[in-house]
Design brief:
6-stranded antiparallel β-sheet, 3-stranded mixed β-sheet, alpha+beta, Immunoglobulin-like
Amino acid sequence: MKKSFHFLIFILILFFIFPGCKNQEEAKKADPPLINNYQAGPINLNLIVSKQKITIAEKLQLTLKAQINKDYEVEFPELIEELNEFQIRDFHYNSPKMKDKDHIEVSMEYDLEPYLSGEYTIPPLPVYFWKTEEGKEKKHQIETDEVIITVTSLLEEDYQTLMIKDIEGPLAPKSRLWIILLVIFFALLIIGAIITGLIFYFKKKEKKEITSYISAYQLAIDRLEKLVKKNLVENQQVKEFYYELSNILRKYIEERFHLKAPEQTTEEFLENLKKNTTTFGEEEKSTLITFLNHSDPVKYAKHQPADDEIQTSFNHCKNFIIQTRDDSVVLPEDQKDSLT
């Protein structure tokens, strides 16, 4: 009897939810994102626009994504407040990541919001790139095409033709049976939701009680040991070694101090580090700055460090983790294999 009741509730929920999901899928198919691809020498550039037709209440996401040889650097356009008829509500730079041993991927995301309804143009956007060893003075340019965006009003197109009808006469009283059935239906629905919620709550509580935890310090040390076992340096994958070493340190700072270090560029992190007078001591700041100054030339330039430099960088990372050890800061042990 209890299983039949739960099955009935499940069918009713699907009845109300499924049409909504289907409509969302149809909407995505009807208005897919626009993706334009551009190629120039060593760079492959993608312009991605989430929609070409939006309402005045929606936001538009514009993404510039570049894949380029690791010996090059990329600079995206500086869009501060406005882009023609769109207001820039937010923008986010994604740090470089390795696509393969010879290429990196960088991207910039912009959240745009229209001022008024109408048809507007996103102008061509220039992206600059240059070979690291030659410097920015010898930069090259690749440019996107303009994109037409249609912004519609929230009002119906024929709202001016609406007419107010005369008041109709009083309706004859109808049977109240449907009201009783409706009340019973919603009562069963509420009871089923309460029962489901209680089951979910107790299962979650039980799962939480058996979850084991590990300190942020031990988690970082385990990741360093895992990195050493990969033998990246012995296999001439020095740049990949520095990328993973830097990610371990940034992840540790996020988990230990709740600072969004993985989402910041090195310049942003160093600037915030100078302003921070409470989280880190002078010795810890010095260790961080020394590590970043060693690792960035290897990650983003053609610097090939000697074995003793590699060992020094590893020691700086490990020393910082040891200096800031606090075993009271714990996380679920299932994050142990995470290196993102």
